[in-house]
Design goal:
The complex is a heterodimer. By secondary structure, chain A is mainly beta. Chain A has helices at residues 19-33, 124-129, 160-163, 337-344, and strands at residues 37-45, 48-56, 71-72, 75-82, 120-123, 139-142, 146-148, 154-158, 175-177, 189-196, 215-216, 221-225, 255-260, 264-282, 285-297, 312-315, 320-327, 332-336, 347-348. The radius of gyration of chain A is 22 Å and the shape is globular. By secondary structure, chain B is an alpha+beta fold. Helix content of chain B is 15%, strand content 40%. Chain B has two helices and six strands. Chain B has a four-stranded mixed β-sheet, covered by helices on one side. Classes of the chains: A mainly beta, B alpha+beta. The interface between A and B is large, with 66 and 46 residues.
């Protein structure tokens, strides 16, 4: 047995000469504890390793049948939910995280003109105001899709927490850069913050059941172009993706994709719609959302990660259905595009 | 069962109380998906933070129709997905 502390992040059990026995005994315990478990292995857990159990969460079980296990012999046990049993001959994605065609650097992280969907963006002034730049960091997200703003000018959508500093943004003044940076290099500014949907926090301890939670419809902001020919409604050409065009409502079972600055192109499926979610921590306080929808990556791959916020969720027919705004490492949440457009009084190009 | 009807109900506090969520004070995600046994039917998906859920019914009657409630524990509340780098 490897030595390990009580931090919940063990060394790699697989390196131990007795590790296979350890994995076998852990598997026996974990399989026995939950009839939905279909696979047990060793995987990353924080900065260490632990056991990872994949369970088919669609199998109906009574809670009394499930024995809760969070660790086995000092190693943490994490559960990953799937909605089906493991299948043979699982397809390998050609794109997305882990795909064979994925380059080491995501294209969308570089400066690109014209500005297209999926590129990295930053509210430079908010990062300066809040002292983020002074610490050597910057806050970045992704361009969603291009819109006609209420001013009649061209703009693009992203999240409030990307382009409007979680309600701190100064409309008409905050400078938006593509790509992000610690200084403003020549040509980096592509627009100004035009408008945003204010995030409405709920009082501490608020719940929906008690009627005290305030429900948000969208985490969204709009950027106005500094010049008319700067934005194009398309993705980087080498992505070979349909041009976002028109909008639709996301429905469970819809196949969708997104392009973001961290994980590039990923594909997934809408698993839930009309979803209530919360409380999510934002700078103004804990926020609840309604009418959001949930996406899970194809074949168990991650659909999004930090930095992908603001990406447009697009159906395979090019219809924009939402704006990605949050995730938990396994699932991704997006707000309905029609709620975003209505709140910001703009329309998809 | 029209999903629009469920979409309206799911935002109502009394509907959350019918599922005993008034006894639950952690984060959760509550949405409409497909019933894995009958994909043409909707089902309610309730994912709750922590290892224990309140005594949530496995089905709920909505407009005379039984709707399955699929409960998952161990839910991690999402975080906004901007990056600081």
């Amino acid at each position: 047995m490897p030595t390990h502390g009580n931090s919940g992040q063990g060394d790699a059990p697989a390196r131990d000469p007795f590790a296979s026995d350890l994995v076998m005994s852990a598997a026996a315990e974990i399989f026995g504890a939950d009839p939905r478990v279909k696979s047990v292995g060793v995987g990353r857990h924080g900065r260490g390793f632990g056991f990872v159990a994949i369970r088919n969460a669609s199998v109906p079980v009574r809670l009394a049948q499930v024995k809760l296990i969070s660790e086995y012999r000092g190693f943490p046990v994490a559960f990953v939910d799937s909605d089906r049993d493991p299948e043979t001959l699982v397809k390998l994605l050609q794109t997305g995280p882990g795909g064979p065609t994925t380059a080491g650097t995501v294209l969308e992280q570089s400066q690109h003109r014209p500005v297209v969907c999926g590129l990295e963006v930053q509210n430079y002034d908010d990062d300066e105001r809040t002292g983020v730049l002074a610490t050597g960091y910057m806050t970045v997200g992704s361009v969603g899709c291009m819109v006609r703003l209420s001013s009649g000018n061209l703009g693009f959508l992203s999240n409030n927490h990307v382009v409007a500093g979680e309600n701190r943004g100064v409309k008409g003044k905050d400078r938006i850069l593509q790509a992000g940076g610690g200084t403003i290099s020549t040509g980096a500014q592509v627009g100004f913050l035009f408008d945003f949907v204010s995030l409405k926090p709920s009082p501490p301890g608020a719940t929906l059941a008690s009627g005290t939670a305030i429900l948000n419809d969208a985490d969204a902001g709009a950027v106005e172009a500094t010049s008319a020919d700067q934005y194009k409604q398309r993705y980087i050409a080498s992505r070979k993706l349909p041009t976002p065009s028109g909008t639709a409502d996301a429905r469970p079972g819809d196949k969708v994709f997104k392009v973001g600055r961290t994980t590039g192109l990923t594909r997934g499926e809408v698993t839930q719609a009309a979803t209530i979610i919360g409380p999510i921590p934002y700078a103004p306080g804990l926020c609840w959302f309604r009418r959001s929808f949930v996406i899970q990556g194809e074949n168990g791959t991650p659909f999004a990660d930090h930095g992908d916020s603001g990406s447009a969720i697009v159906r395979d027919d090019g219809k924009v259905v939402g704006l990605l705004f949050a995730g938990n490492g396994q699932q991704t949440w997006a707000c309905r595009i029609d709620d975003v457009l209505q709140s910001l009084n703009c329309r998809v190009l | 069962m029209k999903s629009e009807h469920l979409e309206e109900l799911i935002e109502k506090p009394e509907f959350h109380r019918r599922l005993h969520l008034d006894r639950f004070h952690r984060g959760y995600s509550f949405g409409i998906g497909r019933d894995p046994s009958v994909p043409s039917k909707p089902a309610l998906y309730l994912e709750v933070e922590g290892d224990e859920a309140p005594d949530i019914p496995e089905e709920i009657n909505v407009g005379g129709e039984s709707i399955r409630v699929i409960v998952r524990t161990g839910f991690k509340v999402p975080r906004p997905y901007a990056a600081r780098r």
